[in-house]
Amino acid sequence: MINLQAPFPWFGGKSRAADIVWSRFGDVPNYVEPFFGSGAVLLLRPHEPRIETVNDKDGFVANFWRAVSRDAEAVARYADNLVNENDLHARHLWLVDRRDELPLRLCADPEYYDPKIAGWWCWGICCWIGGGWCSGKGPWKNIDGIFALSNAGRGVNRQLPHLGNAGQGVNRKRPLMEWFSDLQNRLRRVRVCCGDWSRVCGPSVTSRAGGIPSPCAVLLDPPYSAEADRDMNLYSEESRDVAHDVREWALANGDDPRLRIALCGYDGEHTMPDSWECVEWRAHGGYGSESKKHDNPNARRERIWFSPHCLKHESKQLGLL
Fold it and tell me: Residue 123: CB partners within 8 Å, gap ≥ 6?
């Protein structure tokens, strides 16, 4: 299997925890990820893919992955742009104006995708400073047809990778088109949904209903809750309490032998039964929020709780702490 990664940065990505997750899930015939984001865990799966269902409420995220799975060449062509601040703000406004209708179109037509929206969104998030890209909350707002810049400090992000820039490319080892083609091949049979997380956690997706085999692995990686004490302007689709609902679902279904559940969060964010295994791991330094000493304390707070029917790991020394 080719080790792949998303061509854009994502706060809370789980690439460094992927090995831990798959060691507890094993080679399951059915995999569900209700909060897909950058899809790091799925893309780093060490087994041959089987039934896989992913979802994200953010229409830009869902459209990107659906478009890449259908027409990677077109998405790569729109993503391959030089870094230009004027283009960044103009395209941001253009994308925000399509933000509300995009999920509706994705849900209404299973064949719908927009490679231009996907490519420009991907290019922009690589250039953006901080969170809030395409959230509609700023820094650019369309007020009665007037452009208003609410934070002049945000613009071209010179720290994150820039698509289309040979000097700062997101993947220096492979051409951009080849990278997107590899992503398309990996996603060819992945079912990409756009909507509330609970839609893909029902029996029709996770259990034997409709002939779906078990066990089913469910990776729950919701936005960190208010208890995590984080910046609440990181995602286009934000929520302070969805993590609470996700935890309740995990508790209600954790004893089902057909399910292997992993719940991600910060230390102290979730209180789980003793039958659940809590694994510590260390993330990267953070999404543009490292301290001057290059040591983001939040990176040490990462935890994953595994349900009782997940596979047991013989050694507790995971090598990532």
Answer: 78, 79, 80, 81, 91, 163, 164
pTM to 2 decimal places: 0.80
**How far, CA to CA in Å, does 1 sit from each of 4, 21, 25, 43?**
9, 17, 17, 9
The residue behind tokens 């208010």 is: 226
Asked whether the beta carbons of 39 and 68 are under 8 A apart, the reply is no
Q: Tell me the DSSP string of 175-222.
A: -HHHHHHHHHHHHTTPEEE-S-GGGGSSHHHHSSGGG--S-EEEEE-P
Closest C-alpha among 271, 278, 275 to residue 303? 278
CATH of domain 1-57+195-321: 3.40.50.150
Q: What is the rounded distance in angstroms from the CA atom of residue 232 to the CA atom of residue 224? A: 9
State how far the Cα of 3 lies from the Cα of 116, in Å rounded to an integer: 26
Domain boundaries, given as residue ranges, for the chain: 1-57+195-321, 59-188
pLDDT beyond 90 at 297: no
